[in-house]
C-alpha cells in the first residue's frame, strides 16, 4: 500500500509543478534517461473536447506528483513520467489510429476512458497487437469507460478499469432513489450507444427490484454528441408528468439536456451519473438545488481534512474556474501504475499487468484495490446532492458556479462491489 501526504507534496511539489512535465520531456532527449511514457488517447477536439482536456489536466497533475518525489524508481535510475496526447476526435476508428501511432512511437502504456465504444475497440485492438508481437505488448488503463461488459464478457488481461462500472454506479444511485417516497413517475433518457443503452437497461431492472411502485413514463435514447437542441426531449419529459429523470448522459449531452429541461419548466429531480460538473450545475442554477443527484468515486466536499487538502492543492495547480474538475480515480490510477512498474522492475507489459493485478493504493484518505479476477478497481462510492455553496456540507462550489455537491451517502468499497462474469485468458 502507498500513502502520500498531500500537504508534504504541496510544500515541495507545487513550487515546481508547472515545469515538471516539460522537464521530463527535456530529460527524455538524453539517452541516459528514458521516461515512462503514457499515451492518452482521448477526444481532444469536437463536441466532447472539454472532457478530454479535463482528463489531461488530471493525468498531468498525477504525473507531476510522481515526478516531484523523484519519478518512477527503476533499475538504472529514476524515470520521469510523461503524458503524451493522441486525439481520437471522439471516434473509435480515430482511437485505433491513435493506438497504432502510440505503439509505433514505442509507448507501452495506453490510457483512455471517455467512450465505452472506443474502449471496447482498444481492448480488441490491443489483444490483436499483443498476440502478433508479444515482445512489444501494451497495457491499457481505463479511467472512465464504464460499460459493465468491459470487465465481464469482454474482459482482457491487458485491460484495467479504474472507474466503477455502470451497474455499480446505478446501485449506489438507487440506494438514494429508493428512499424518495414521493417519487412515483420517472423518465429514462440516455445516449444511444453501448453505455447509454446499458444504463437504461439496468435502471429498469433495478427500479423493478427496489421501487416497483415507480412507473417509467418515458424511455428515450438519442444520438451521441449530435443533438444541439434538447427542447423536444424536454417537452416530452414535461408532458409525461415525470417527477424525476434518470440519465447516464455526460459532457455537453448532459449540460444541454438539463438546460433545456429547466427552460421547459421541468421542476423534478435529475438522478445522474455525471451531473456534478462540466457545466451542468450552472446550467440548472437554483432550479437544481436539492434536485440534481450525482454518483462518483469522490466529491470535493467529502468531509475529511485529507480530502479537503487534496482538492485545495488541485485548485492551486489549476486555479481557473473552468478547469475545476478533479478525479480521484485518475490520481489513484497513476499511483497504481507507478507502484506496478516499480515492483515489475521494468517496462515489460506482462510484468506490469501482473503487478497491477495486486495494486492497492491510498491517497487523501481514499483506499482502493484492483480485483485480479476481472481487473475492476474496487473503491468507495458516494452520492451527492446539489446545493448552494456555503450551505451545510457544501464548502466548495463547482467551476465557480456558486453551486456544489453535498455528500448524502457513502458506500465502502465492499458495499459497492458486485460479482463478475469474467473468464480471463492470461499469457
UniProtKB/TrEMBL annotation:
Keyword Signal attached: yes
Database matches in Pfam families: Peripla_BP_6
Domain called Leucine-binding protein: residue spans: 35-390
Domain of life per record: Bacteria
Tell me the keywords, alphabetical order.
Signal
Matches recorded under InterPro entries: BCAA_transport, Leu-bd, Peripla_BP_I
Q: Quick one: signal sequence residues?
A: 1-28
Q: According to its UniProt record, which protein family does this protein belong to?
A: Belongs to the leucine-binding protein family.
Annotated protein name in UniProt: ABC transporter permease
Q: What is the lineage of its organism?
A: Bacteria, Pseudomonadati, Pseudomonadota, Betaproteobacteria, Burkholderiales
Amino acid at each position: 500500500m502507498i500513502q502520500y501526504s498531500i500537504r508534504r507534496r504541496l510544500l515541495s511539489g507545487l513550487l515546481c509543478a508547472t515545469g515538471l512535465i516539460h522537464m521530463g520531456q527535456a530529460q527524455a532527449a538524453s539517452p541516459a534517461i528514458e521516461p515512462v511514457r503514457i499515451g492518452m488517447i482521448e477526444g481532444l477536439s469536437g463536441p466532447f473536447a472539454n472532457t478530454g482536456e479535463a482528463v489531461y489536466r488530471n493525468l498531468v497533475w498525477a504525473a507531476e506528483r510522481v515526478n516531484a518525489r523523484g519519478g518512477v524508481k527503476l533499475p538504472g535510475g529514476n524515470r520521469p513520467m510523461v503524458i503524451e496526447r493522441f486525439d481520437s476526435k471522439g471516434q473509435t476508428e480515430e482511437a485505433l489510429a491513435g493506438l497504432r501511432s502510440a505503439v509505433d512511437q514505442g509507448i507501452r502504456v495506453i490510457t483512455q476512458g471517455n467512450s465505452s465504444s472506443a474502449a471496447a475497440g482498444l481492448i480488441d485492438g490491443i489483444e490483436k497487437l499483443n498476440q502478433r508481437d508479444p515482445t512489444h505488448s501494451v497495457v491499457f488503463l481505463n479511467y472512465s469507460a464504464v460499460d459493465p461488459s468491459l470487465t465481464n464478457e469482454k474482459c482482457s488481461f491487458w485491460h484495467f478499469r479504474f472507474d466503477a462500472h455502470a451497474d455499480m454506479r446505478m446501485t449506489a444511485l438507487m440506494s438514494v432513489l429508493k428512499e424518495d417516497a414521493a417519487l412515483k413517475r420517472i423518465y429514462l433518457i440516455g445516449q444511444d450507444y453501448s453505455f447509454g443503452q446499458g444504463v437504461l437497461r439496468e435502471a429498469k431492472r433495478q427500479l423493478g427490484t427496489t421501487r416497483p411502485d415507480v412507473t417509467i413514463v418515458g424511455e428515450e435514447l438519442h444520438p451521441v454528441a449530435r443533438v444541439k437542441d434538447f427542447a423536444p426531449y424536454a417537452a416530452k419529459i414535461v408532458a409525461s408528468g415525470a417527477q424525476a429523470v434518470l440519465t447516464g448522459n455526460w459532457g455537453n449531452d448532459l449540460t444541454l439536456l438539463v438546460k433545456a429541461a429547466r427552460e421547459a419548466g421541468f421542476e423534478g429531480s435529475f438522478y445522474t451519473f455525471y451531473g456534478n460538473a462540466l457545466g451542468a450545475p450552472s446550467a440548472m442554477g437554483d432550479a437544481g438545488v436539492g434536485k440534481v443527484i450525482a454518483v462518483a468515486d469522490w466529491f470535493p466536499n467529502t468531509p475529511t481534512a485529507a480530502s479537503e487538502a487534496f482538492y485545495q492543492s488541485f485548485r492551486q495547480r489549476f486555479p481557473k474556474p473552468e478547469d475545476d474538475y478533479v478525479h480521484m480515480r485518475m490520481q489513484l490510477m497513476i499511483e497504481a501504475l507507478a507502484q506496478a512498474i516499480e515492483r515489475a522492475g521494468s517496462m515489460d507489459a506482462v510484468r506490469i499487468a501482473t503487478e497491477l493485478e495486486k495494486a492497492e493504493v491510498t491517497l487523501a484518505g481514499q483506499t482502493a484495490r484492483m480485483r485480479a479476477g476481472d481487473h475492476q478497481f474496487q473503491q468507495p462510492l458516494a452520492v451527492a446532492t446539489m446545493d448552494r455553496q456555503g450551505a451545510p456540507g457544501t464548502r466548495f462550489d463547482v467551476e465557480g458556479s456558486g453551486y456544489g455537491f453535498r455528500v448524502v451517502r457513502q458506500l465502502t468499497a465492499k458495499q459497492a462491489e458486485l460479482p463478475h462474469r469474467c473468464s480471463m485468458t492470461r499469457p
